[in-house]
Amino acid sequence: MLVRHLTDAQDFDAIVLVRDREARRRRDGGESLRLVLGDRTGTVPAVLDDGGADVAALCPVGAPVHVTGRYAVHARHGGRLVLRSLRAAHADEVDWTTLLDGPPRAAAQMEADLRELVSTVQNAHLQALLDAVFGPDAATWHAFRDAPAAKRYHQAYRHGLLEHSLTVAQAVSAISATFPGIDRDVAVTGALLHDIGKLEAYASHPPTIEMTDAGKLQGEISLGYYRVRRLIEDLPGFPEELAAAVLHIILSHHGLLEYGSPVVPCTREATLVHMIDNLGGRLGSFDRLEKELPDGSRWSGYDRALGGGAYFAARAA
Amino acid sequence: MLVRHLTDAQDFDAIVLVRDREARRRRDGGESLRLVLGDRTGTVPAVLDDGGADVAALCPVGAPVHVTGRYAVHARHGGRLVLRSLRAAHADEVDWTTLLDGPPRAAAQMEADLRELVSTVQNAHLQALLDAVFGPDAATWHAFRDAPAAKRYHQAYRHGLLEHSLTVAQAVSAISATFPGIDRDVAVTGALLHDIGKLEAYASHPPTIEMTDAGKLQGEISLGYYRVRRLIEDLPGFPEELAAAVLHIILSHHGLLEYGSPVVPCTREATLVHMIDNLGGRLGSFDRLEKELPDGSRWSGYDRALGGGAYFAARAA
Amino acid sequence: MLVRHLTDAQDFDAIVLVRDREARRRRDGGESLRLVLGDRTGTVPAVLDDGGADVAALCPVGAPVHVTGRYAVHARHGGRLVLRSLRAAHADEVDWTTLLDGPPRAAAQMEADLRELVSTVQNAHLQALLDAVFGPDAATWHAFRDAPAAKRYHQAYRHGLLEHSLTVAQAVSAISATFPGIDRDVAVTGALLHDIGKLEAYASHPPTIEMTDAGKLQGEISLGYYRVRRLIEDLPGFPEELAAAVLHIILSHHGLLEYGSPVVPCTREATLVHMIDNLGGRLGSFDRLEKELPDGSRWSGYDRALGGGAYFAARAA
Amino acid sequence: MLVRHLTDAQDFDAIVLVRDREARRRRDGGESLRLVLGDRTGTVPAVLDDGGADVAALCPVGAPVHVTGRYAVHARHGGRLVLRSLRAAHADEVDWTTLLDGPPRAAAQMEADLRELVSTVQNAHLQALLDAVFGPDAATWHAFRDAPAAKRYHQAYRHGLLEHSLTVAQAVSAISATFPGIDRDVAVTGALLHDIGKLEAYASHPPTIEMTDAGKLQGEISLGYYRVRRLIEDLPGFPEELAAAVLHIILSHHGLLEYGSPVVPCTREATLVHMIDNLGGRLGSFDRLEKELPDGSRWSGYDRALGGGAYFAARAA
Amino acid sequence: MLVRHLTDAQDFDAIVLVRDREARRRRDGGESLRLVLGDRTGTVPAVLDDGGADVAALCPVGAPVHVTGRYAVHARHGGRLVLRSLRAAHADEVDWTTLLDGPPRAAAQMEADLRELVSTVQNAHLQALLDAVFGPDAATWHAFRDAPAAKRYHQAYRHGLLEHSLTVAQAVSAISATFPGIDRDVAVTGALLHDIGKLEAYASHPPTIEMTDAGKLQGEISLGYYRVRRLIEDLPGFPEELAAAVLHIILSHHGLLEYGSPVVPCTREATLVHMIDNLGGRLGSFDRLEKELPDGSRWSGYDRALGGGAYFAARAA
Amino acid sequence: MLVRHLTDAQDFDAIVLVRDREARRRRDGGESLRLVLGDRTGTVPAVLDDGGADVAALCPVGAPVHVTGRYAVHARHGGRLVLRSLRAAHADEVDWTTLLDGPPRAAAQMEADLRELVSTVQNAHLQALLDAVFGPDAATWHAFRDAPAAKRYHQAYRHGLLEHSLTVAQAVSAISATFPGIDRDVAVTGALLHDIGKLEAYASHPPTIEMTDAGKLQGEISLGYYRVRRLIEDLPGFPEELAAAVLHIILSHHGLLEYGSPVVPCTREATLVHMIDNLGGRLGSFDRLEKELPDGSRWSGYDRALGGGAYFAARAA
């Protein structure tokens, strides 16, 4: 029983996550609780009219709760759950994979895919650099494995950064033979590292993801650039031009100055990573919008990342 | 002896193409001929001081000529060929492949690759549509095979449209498994057809490529949209939604209204074709800039398509 | 008794249209109905506190209802009708012309004006084309006569497309003698046809107007271009250059690529139609804003189409 | 014998205007004169190889000269007149109307049309204001009658301001009945006065037109606004709101802040004048481009005012 | 007890200003009052459930009231005052300086600073102009002293225009020696006068500030330009070039056409005043945002004037 | 005898710098030398008709030469020096300060001013940081002292970076008391360091200044950010928040993402440095344009940095 599939007048009995809440005092001194409840398929507003202070204490934002009630759809403002009961969920009845959005592939599988892709990089210096970031013993590996890729829009969930970086690098790898003149090792390394600054730019306290002070004051691109240039300084004999090629990918991967890159891509490899990153972001928006699409709808609402609505054609049976 | 490799004070003796010319009358009644000569590697200014009216008649723009002379470099304006002799080239001494730029792959090879890719499309309706455009007996096949992809910037040469459409479709095919939810048949079909309007929008009279009145007044996207929608009308039972999916790719492939698309991409397949088309165009600019790069240079000049200069790192031996 | 003229503390008793509604469950199990009611002069929020499920069934969005109540103005959020009663209106007590906005001129009068204007076109090919679209027996005539011109902003009502196309064509006709070099027949024909793609781009189910899938995926300009080019193909002997002149007006009438035209106007006639269409749209916004202007106000709010507020000076008695 | 009609190898013998010149010293001490010669149909480069200092004195920029020579076309840089002789023209052999571009209508006819249009303005205050500017005894009348409308682009010639202001006002008058709610008197008055600031912003010393210091430092809109507001201050009983309506048209007639209007049009009359002024300017560009179009050409070059090339279809015989 | 310092569950008893209000009818016929209350440190929403029509009459928007109640914070929508009592405040218990925001310096002190700065201007003509505007007997002096500098963003309070003009002029004075070539007298005069058009463009009825019809239809820059140019006309012997220098500062001080300046700064003095005005506006936004910052916060929300959030570092003790 | 003061028909005899040159072969086998000669006041084209290969060897670009000749002005293309003689200048007759543009203040004086300003910074950590960069023994001090501030536009000469950084810091210091809430130590430190990345981004080989590969691939802001963050890492106990405040100034000092800053200024200090840096750059453009202004001119040509022409009013005697 997932929130995206609710239909008018349907009874509801499930474990969900409290995404937001507001208490309103009633005339008689009681409180009416306005909540936003959710699972990995989306969110739904809810109201509990008999919920006083005691009940409110049970449902801090982020907590899993067990609720019962009925779903009702209004012409303009859409549907709402009218709750009959609400209690804190027991740890053993919570299935987090139904509550929090996440990647379609398991983290362990993505880690294996990452290691396989890294192993195809021939250049020893780039191997050493990738090992310093993604090696099982690297200081950053565990943080990278768990980090989200964004606050919203695409892959804004645990393992999202791993999923996004891996997908972009796989696509870069797949496509680099189609076009002439691309240094595949440099392109794949740049693709894997391009968003590494997000490690410092985002602080993930599930289910919320916030930008850090460093992220706001310095920007994720600067942070990633510093980290990789600093690592390279400690790798003996790393060629200067190779370093410049990788750093240029990180710095230019937003493609335009107005999107936060201090330089525009001026190598084939930087152009490739920028475009595939952009493509990955947009297709990720389609994934997110499709998950949120109400049953029976073909068009999402206006989406800022796409500059329009997304259309999902019916699939043949 | 190609013009890109000329160095200061070098003697020159070769067949080249007249790209432009201007006669200047001298005080003594003779004429000084200012020429632009070229081969597939670029162009070079030239001057012939004793060239009177008789010589001028030998070298209309577009004609191959045999010239001898010496190359000299000036500090500010760069190099120039000072000619000693100029005559029309004999048909049997002209090697067009050294004179005109062209694709790195042979047309026959590209045709074979195209037919192989088309054969992988499963959907029978799309097969029929592709056959109506690219089939060996299709009215448009030979024009498509020979057409250029642009007036300048990338693949502005014979077979350029075939090369560009094929490359984009191959890359779309290669990448469509990396991202979930893509209808590969629709995406590959759209990729092959996305620039079909260029058949009417450009008129190629080698070595010049001009935009036609229809191209200027109606736009290449409208022309391609009309052609494909008109063809589909004559294919019995072509599903309406499938038609909409393909036509949307053609209409939206420039990505933004300000680039001439009347609608923005709102399906995964249209997003994919737009982005890979864009990527192909930019990497094509790198190819062109690298061809024109003087020996010893690492940076091209400012390029409007890239929004900056292109950098070509030294390749390891 | 029209909603635009309501003043604080005024009693209200009228037939109005349900524009939107939302039911809110009260503590005691009853329902409070939040409604938006409207007539052709505008809309007003309303609330009915004793309206349970039975009452709600009487007022689907789009239905005419009879209501009684009192209007009350609040300092910040403006006025609201507090309803005492609500019932479905009987068919024989509904006067649709007071409920739905519409053109100031009667449709029959506009049709007569259109036929008169068409009869002034001298060129026989253009006459044949206009007859194929607007002739009383043309397949599209009745749809064109009834279609709206927009979803909002200007002439977003029945007969709006006829009104807008006719007005633009009349103004083009009136002005084409003031400036030299204009082919009046081409300009008037282009003006009458410029928005013909809206027939497929909008679906009108009064009182709602929606964009169709074809409208979103292909764009109204492409749809109109295809329709007219297809019709011309079936008109024997239609000169190619004349066809290009008319099609160019349709394609370029938004004036700029970023507004959805794949080409910019490059003939006098296309420039004229684009500018007068634009003028008609802006003046139509003034008409709409003036209708909605509360009594006593001189300034409308910010209007996106105008880029500011509209000012309506007092008229001399 | 007008310069626009010159064809390759044609002999030339005519009075033309010196538009520009440069002397180049030759090795033997003589001078080669490079000239730009023109008449109202355009300009042509010319060269006189035996022209020493004495000849140069005969042809200051702006002077009419008699020249003989031959016209020759080069492949890239177009045509050039090779002169045999050059002398100052006698006053009695100069026909200025063939030398300087000008309006298609005679100034006296335009003045009559202006007075007729002014006489149709009903409002006495506006009549008084128009009389203070355009009355035969008004201080500004003669300057207005002679002023150009621009430095280039459209109506950049004597009487151009009169022609432009009159045409815009006539079109505004013709169209103001087509759209509802327009105060025709205000709109026509605003149209006649909208560019009045150009009197101070341009200094015309035929054949050159320069922007004045006041024009550069204060802008033509500010200058016109000050002039009209100052005049109104001296007209007794001029209603404040009427003044605001006229001044708003002057201030907003560029339509957007980025085009130099400090406010955007927010009345119907200001919207109308802005759009018709804009239309008049663009159609004026077509007139200019058509005049300059070489025989046989259908497309002008790129024109900044139009955002593209202009296309001139063949006219039926 | 200022509203910015309220914390959850805190009792509240203070004189505050009614910033907005809305009455909602309850089922039982009573009224619930929703209010926005404020003092100079910010605003807070409030609700009074037993407030009927009688109470509502006590609190028109803009009135000072005495309220008691308790502050409660909700997770999503922030804090709200739940009122127990509300009555009109007695004139003698109102301290306006705690209710209305204002400049950090006293008006008398700013007036003294202004007069001191004016006295440092050496040029006699500029002295006369400044005296005609700021002299104690000048018609505009008292209006200038009291006027606000804006509707919002910065110095949107009584004496704000004096504060802003003085600060900009002081900074211009302080900095004009650091850079070579600046005419300090012209720059300081322009700085003092740059916003003088706001006298007519804003109407201040505390606590609300509205733009006037003249402000909307003509723009504050045009109004200021007219006023100063008109004053200069009456000053005998005022040099034309000096007038142009001062008027150019007023006209260009927004820096770009798209910000409402009809000309861009093209003198050093206009550049200086524009940049320091801009700087003053942005730093004023920091002041406003810091005042509104909740205790414990370091980041403001997104601010349109800054193009981002403002960050306030902790100050050392 | 400086090139800016040349007037028509003036004889010339001076040491100047070869800024550019091109040899043109003449019919008789000799060479005509086209040169651009310059001193610190500007440049002038020159021609030497009898200059063969021997002479050409004497004047590589960048070399000081002694020339004699006469200056002549042409109507369109302006003035040109016709040379009689040209020889290499002897080392002891060259006065570099008249040949190369430079700051108006001596480098030693600027160094003294810098040290004095640094000494006013109270915070010990910032003192340590400034000492690590500007201390007489710092690795970067001598490079900083000599570096230019730009390739063109403003302070594109030796000591230009010192001059620009010092001036901005002095203005920041002077103004920081006028506005409340500014941490003067942070602002002054940020002002001194804001352009430090130019040390690596530019390579100065007088008289040419080029951008380095690192400058193009990484951007001057990234390079400066890395340098300062790396230095801070080695300063024990440097507070993290203080580091963030200084680094944020460097990263944001271009003010907008589209100008290459990866983050926008969100502290008062960053706002101040950005605005004063911007002001300094624009006023520097005035200085450069005034130096190049021909005698008698009041207006410079269009300047991209200013978005218009610069106007220089006559100064009172």
Summarize the structure.
By secondary structure, chain A is of the alpha+beta class.
Description:
6 copies of one chain form a homohexamer. With 317 residues, chain A is α+β, with helices and mostly antiparallel strands. Chain A has 12 helices and 7 strands. In chain A, helix 6 (160-175) packs antiparallel against helix 7 (184-193), helix 10 runs antiparallel to helix 11 and helix 11 (240-252) packs parallel to helix 12 (268-292). The longest helix of chain A has 25 residues, at 268-292. The first copy, chain A, is elongated, with a radius of gyration of 23 Å.
**Computed Rg of chain A:** 23 Å
- Please tell me the overall pLDDT of chain A: 87
Count helical runs of chain A. Answer: 12
Query: Which oligomeric state applies?
Result: homohexamer
Helix and strand sequence of chain A: EEEHEEHHHHHHHEEHHHH
The main sheet of chain A comes to: 5 strands, mixed, barrel
